[in-house]
């Protein structure tokens, strides 16, 4: 516990340093989307194999450099040059990066690369609210193809209402709503991944999932009690609950989604999600309790292309009861997801891991 307090103290200190850092002061809000190509060897001449966050965090917050992962011989050759994001042979993956989950995001990227047959054909799109994290990625994965997108928290500040779990109110949780706007227009499909998971199978299998006429694909859980995701106020108003008429809505987890961005853009789903967030804010009584999930359920539940459950073995974080551990759901496993309140890196560090946390540990690059 003491460790956690010290660590969060460090995070606040790091935040303050970043806020005060001159490089960010010269960052113009007009550059709403800032990016950089992977593969460019312009700025990082640092030969140290550890990377450091700015200033006082140096030496405390380090990641080992990941090995370089190469394509197998029969991977499709890139047609448009090394780092073009528009290359049609690429698999696109979007992940958020923030200080609190950085260790998880880095492990997730590591897992995707390690288990891919064609790791050099995976292009990462990182959504950040702290632009300094770009150098962390570049130092840890020197040859990674990636782009960093600045997500302005102001974009959702007035749309977020307080939820049952404070962690769910982080603006970056809502960045997934804006992928279609943020990512390059030539990127027509993306896999969105949460930061508390590892992929233990070739991600190109998930990438090639057929979505049919659906905009998003995700594993669906039709046995879960869908009622509980919305309030009585919601269910008692046909103006609200009527949104599900003619649909057979099932719960799905928004931590793993395959998204048809072209279709999303065409049908204006960002605005549809925002509208529900506005209703939650302005309605006489709240219509749901959780954070970014319910608006997704409102817009998409019952209209999701089903993906095999192996691609989201979720809930491994357990619930709020301290020390509670979850087991895997029956069936094969391609992705392990520590959704819930516990995180494997915290439990491993506190020497009180759950049995399945040992499956996360091999992907961890934190420390010397
Ligand atoms: C589903 O959840 C609602 C609200 O929490 C509850 O009232 C209802 O009894 C539950 N239904 C079942 C079948 O468990």
Question: What key attributes describe this structure?
Answer:
368 residues; alpha/beta; Spore Coat Polysaccharide Biosynthesis Protein SpsA, Chain A; seven-stranded mixed β-sheet; two-stranded antiparallel ribbon; 13 helices; 12% strand; disordered N terminus; binds 2-acetamido-2-deoxy-beta-D-glucopyranose
Any chance you could write out the topology, listing elements then pairs?
Blueprint: H1 2-20, H2 22-25, E1 91-97, H3 102-115, E2 122-128, H4 133-140, E3 145-150, H5 154-157, H6 179-182, E4 189-193, E5 197-199, H7 203-207, E6 216-218, E7 220-221, H8 232-236, H9 238-241, E8 251-252, E9 256-260, H10 261-267, H11 269-282, H12 293-300, E10 305-306, E11 335-337, H13 344-349
Helix pairs in contact: 11-12
The structure holds 2-acetamido-2-deoxy-beta-D-glucopyranose.
Residues 225, 227-228 line the site of 2-acetamido-2-deoxy-beta-D-glucopyranose.
- Class in CATH? Alpha Beta
Strand content: 5-15%
- The number of strands is 11
Number of domains: 1
Q: In CATH terms, what is the architecture?
A: Alpha-Beta Complex
Q: How are the strands ordered across the major sheet?
A: 3-2-1-4-9-6-10
Average residue-wise pLDDT: 84
Summarize the amount of helix as a percent range.
25-40%
What does this structure look like?
- It is a single-pass type II membrane protein.
- Its main location: membrane.
- Its EC number is 2.4.1.-.
- Keywords: Glycoprotein, Glycosyltransferase, Membrane, Signal, Signal-anchor, Transferase, Transmembrane, Transmembrane helix.
- It contains 13 helices and eleven strands.
- The protein is α/β, with parallel strands linked by helices and 368 residues long.
- It has one domain (47-310): Spore Coat Polysaccharide Biosynthesis Protein SpsA, Chain A.
- A seven-stranded mixed sheet has the order 3-2-1-4-9-6-10. The protein has a two-stranded antiparallel ribbon with strand order 5-11. A two-stranded antiparallel sheet has the order 7-8.
- Helix 11 crosses helix 12.
- It is globular, with a radius of gyration of 20 Å.
- The structure holds 2-acetamido-2-deoxy-beta-D-glucopyranose.
């Amino acid at each position: 516990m003491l460790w956690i307090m010290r660590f969060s103290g460090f995070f606040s200190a790091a935040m303050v340093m970043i806020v005060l850092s001159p490089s960010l002061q010269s960052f113009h809000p007009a550059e709403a989307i800032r990016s950089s190509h992977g593969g460019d060897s312009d700025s990082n001449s640092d030969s140290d194999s550890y990377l450091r966050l700015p200033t006082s965090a140096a030496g405390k917050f380090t990641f080992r450099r990941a090995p370089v992962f190469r394509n197998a011989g029969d991977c499709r050759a890139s047609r448009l040059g090394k780092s073009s994001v528009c290359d049609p042979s690429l698999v696109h993956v979007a992940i958020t990066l923030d200080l609190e989950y950085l260790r998880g995001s880095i492990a997730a990227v590591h897992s995707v690369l390690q288990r891919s047959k064609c790791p050099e054909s995976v292009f990462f799109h990182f959504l950040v609210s702290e632009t300094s994290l770009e150098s962390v990625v570049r130092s840890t994965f020197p040859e990674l193809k990636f782009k960093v997108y600045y997500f302005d928290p102001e974009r959702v500040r007035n749309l977020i209402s307080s939820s049952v779990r404070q962690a769910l109110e982080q603006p970056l949780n809502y960045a997934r709503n804006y992928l279609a706007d943020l990512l390059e227009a030539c990127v027509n499909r993306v896999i969105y991944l949460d930061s508390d998971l590892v992929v233990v199978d070739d991600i190109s299998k998930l990438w090639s999932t057929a979505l049919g006429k659906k905009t998003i694909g995700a594993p669906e859980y039709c046995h879960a009690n869908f009622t509980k995701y919305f309030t009585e106020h919601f269910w008692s108003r046909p103006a609200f609950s009527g949104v599900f008429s003619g649909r057979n809505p099932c719960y799905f987890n928004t931590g793993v989604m395959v998204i048809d961005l072209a279709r999303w853009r065409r049908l204006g789903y960002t605005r549809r999600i925002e509208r529900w967030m506005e209703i939650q804010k302005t309605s006489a009584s709240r219509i749901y309790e959780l954070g970014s999930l319910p608006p997704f359920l409102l817009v998409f539940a019952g209209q999701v292309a089903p993906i095999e459950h192996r691609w989201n073995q979720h809930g491994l974080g357990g619930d709020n009861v301290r020390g509670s551990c979850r087991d895997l759901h029956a069936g094969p496993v391609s992705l392990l997801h520590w959704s819930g309140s516990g995180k494997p890196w915290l439990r491993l560090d506190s020497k009180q891991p759950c049995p399945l946390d040992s499956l996360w540990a091999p992907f961890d690059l934190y420390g010397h």
